[in-house]
């Protein structure tokens, strides 16, 4: 379960609830673990629960973009939080923040029924990608990370990283870029569950139009970190069965996302530990490396 730490009451919480749920009173505030960029809090009120996200001052544009993206996401056929109030100027806490409805459930990153878990993830992902994009504009039209990919600066000599970068540079210019609506950060840690059923998808701050296969690869890399490559492949099978288009150029996107997972595995582990995982840094790094080696072999590249 996602870790929740009680937070002291203060005038900021009363202010945000006054704008989010007029007439309600604050009953308790807890910090929710798992976030990396923003601080996330669960606020219990006399009229239901509210989620509040606070960003550093330099992220005022980020919070406005998340508001815009979350508003657009209301058209989706998936459980999405409803935006309630925005404070880009920092009136509530001295930093940018937004409030949204709290969905039922909690993260489940150690599933007991792995195949059912993968099927739920895949179905949600396919539904997002099938969303009507008419009227999309603003932040939703910004290029996805893979469309602006640049070789990372090497931290230490690594044959695996060198071969991965070379393969990406060789194949990425030729991939398909057919855009659909993507969540932008779709991974197990951003989903909520209740009794084995997916009940919500959180963190829409990176939503935009982009290639579906890239987002599938993004989730595959996290599944491989948490489980293994075989589970990532089953996720793909369920995605296609759920109505998602057969992913084009998936191995190339796997390399991009797998390399990112390898480089950020320690940071990702910190977030997943707040949601109950007990893996070691070596386990995460080894799984990410195995994911890359398998993909390089699939492409016929040296590894």
Automatic annotation (TrEMBL):
InterPro entries linked: AGP_Transferase (IPR051678), Aminoglycoside_PTrfase (IPR002575), Kinase-like_dom_sf (IPR011009)
Organism superkingdom: Bacteria
Pfam family, one: APH
Segments forming domain Aminoglycoside phosphotransferase: 29-244
Protein name: Phosphotransferase family protein
Annotated source species: Tenggerimyces flavus
């Amino acid at each position: 379960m996602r870790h929740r730490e009680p937070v002291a009451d203060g005038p900021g919480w009363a202010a945000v609830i006054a704008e989010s749920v007029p007439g309600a009173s604050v009953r308790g505030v807890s910090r929710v673990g798992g976030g990396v960029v923003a601080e996330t809090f669960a606020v219990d009120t006399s009229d239901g629960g509210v989620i509040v996200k606070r960003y550093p001052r330099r992220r005022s544009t980020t919070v406005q973009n998340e508001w815009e993206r979350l508003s657009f996401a209301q058209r989706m056929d998936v459980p999405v939080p409803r935006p309630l109030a925005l404070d880009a100027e920092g009136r509530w806490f001295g930093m940018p923040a937004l409030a949204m409805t709290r969905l039922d459930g909690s993260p489940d990153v150690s599933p007991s029924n792995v195949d059912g878990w993968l099927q739920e993830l895949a179905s949600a992902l396919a539904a997002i990608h099938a969303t009507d994009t008419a009227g999309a504009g603003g932040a939703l039209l910004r290029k996805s990370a893979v469309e602006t990919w640049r070789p990372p600066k090497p931290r230490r000599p690594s044959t695996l990283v060198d071969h991965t970068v070379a393969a990406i540079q060789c194949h990425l210019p030729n991939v398909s870029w057919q855009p659909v609506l993507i969540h932008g950060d779709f991974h197990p840690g951003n989903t909520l569950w209740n009794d084995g059923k997916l009940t919500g998808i959180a963190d829409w701050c990176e939503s935009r139009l982009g290639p579906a296969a890239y987002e599938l690869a993004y989730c595959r890399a996290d599944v491989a970190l948490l489980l293994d490559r075989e589970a990532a492949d089953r996720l793909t099978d369920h995605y296609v069965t759920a109505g998602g288009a057969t992913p084009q150029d998936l191995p190339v996107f796997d390399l991009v996302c797998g390399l990112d997972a390898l480089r950020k595995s320690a940071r990702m582990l910190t977030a997943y530990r707040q949601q109950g995982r007990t893996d070691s840094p070596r386990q995460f790094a080894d799984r990410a490396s195995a994911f890359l080696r398998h993909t390089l072999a699939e492409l016929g590249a040296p590894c």
